[in-house]
Write a structure and sequence with these properties.
mainly alpha
């Protein structure tokens, strides 16, 4: 665990060093390069025992790379038995056929895309790239991204589509989300945002949306049966679950706390404008949190929403961000600095508790780098141990 927190401290060091640059452009470039090296170095060369889904993606790649006839077949062939979306199948086939049959290729390639895509997204939201990344790392959402490779590829498309959503440019937004769905079907849910962002913001409408989520939570299994989805693996997995979903409840509490803090600061800073897109994305995140305790698989939908919420929260508590687009009349810098430090400390404590008592949520400890000299890796070890 000490190695993990030493890694977090490196981001603090990069942040402090970036403050020494007199030119904003130089500070930005330094942060971009340093953050990319830190992210890609840590996640791109992790052992396959690090992060839950790493051995599964490694194993799938390994098996296909050593399947007779697969390499020579068309990269555009859809194989229904793989249980992967078409876009990911094509990408994986291209990597195997034209890049390398070494199974670790998918780990390096995915880490490269996720690292650069996330950094570029944050760069467009704030000039404090390093501290924003640190907050997202301490929250755990970055570990989810590197773990859930297919969904994270879809998330990168959502990052590209997000500006179009805020500009209400529906065609490029829908096109990018459709592309995202080729890597993970859950991305199709994001097509609801252009409709939801048109809803007027008032207490009545918020109550209606949250009420609908509560109703779905109560009737989720009946809804799945009516839709003919009662035999799917996710339905069967959730209906057999007999433990209290404490993680889902805590996540919902955390999201509610972050959003309420933003609302409180909105009033405290005398803001006069509101970002309807971000507001309703936050409400949708709460809806997912309401449904998740009843149907745990819904938590994956918030993989798309958590980054938006954290980067928005970060901007609200970042004392150097003037928040001009929100029409802020008072900066409240001392208060925002206190909230920033409090948030980072609490998130660090939360991560400590997770790694100490719930390491199975990430399988991050013990961390180790991939051994390229070892010709045999037990890529399905977690799958075998959990049967």
């Amino acid at each position: 665990m000490a190695l993990i927190f030493l890694y977090f401290i490196l981001f603090l060091i990069v942040h402090i060093i970036s403050k020494q640059f007199k030119q904003v452009g130089s500070a930005r470039l330094f942060q971009l390069v340093a953050c990319f090296v830190l992210l890609f170095g840590f996640f791109g060369f992790r052992d396959i025992t690090v992060l839950n889904d790493t051995p599964h993606y490694y194993g799938a790649y390994y098996k296909l790379a050593h399947t007779k006839g697969y390499v020579d077949s068309s990269i555009f062939t859809y194989r229904i038995l793989l249980s992967f979306e078409y876009g990911y199948q094509v990408l994986q086939h291209i990597l195997i056929k034209y890049v390398s049959k070494e199974a670790f290729t998918i780990i390096i390639f995915s880490s490269l895309i996720i690292s650069w895509g996330t950094i570029k997204f944050i760069d467009k939201q704030t000039c404090h790239i390093t501290s924003a990344l640190l907050m997202m790392l301490l929250s755990g959402i970055m570990f989810d991204q590197y773990c859930l490779i297919r969904q994270s590829f879809a998330l990168m498309f959502f990052y590209a589509a997000y500006p179009y959503l805020k500009q209400e440019r529906w065609k490029p937004y829908v096109a990018l989300i459709v592309c995202a769905s080729l890597f993970h079907l859950s991305a199709l849910v994001l097509l609801i945002f252009p409709f939801i962002q048109r809803i007027r913001i008032c207490k009545r409408n918020i109550a209606i949306v949250l009420g609908i989520a509560l109703l779905i939570s109560i009737m989720v299994y009946e809804i799945f049966n009516l839709m003919g989805l009662g035999t799917t693996k996710y339905f069967l997995m959730n209906i057999k679950r007999n433990t209290f979903p404490i993680g889902a409840v805590l996540d919902g509490t955390l999201m509610l706390t972050l959003l309420l803090t933003c609302v409180w600061l909105y009033k405290k800073m005398g803001m006069t404008k509101i970002d309807k897109t971000t507001f309703w994305i936050g409400i949708c995140g709460l809806c997912v949190c309401i449904i998740t305790p009843s149907f745990l698989s819904f938590f994956r939908l918030n993989i798309f929403i958590w980054p938006i919420i954290y980067i928005t929260f970060f901007r609200f508590v970042d004392a150097d961000d003037p928040m001009t687009e929100y029409g802020a009349q008072r900066q409240q810098k001392p208060l925002r600095r206190i909230l920033m430090m409090t948030a980072l400390v609490l998130l660090a404590l939360r991560m400590t508790m997770i790694l100490t008592f719930r390491n199975e949520w990430y399988h991050l400890v013990p961390y180790s780098f991939y051994d390229f000299s070892d010709r045999f890796h037990e890529f399905n070890m977690y799958w075998e141990n959990n049967q």
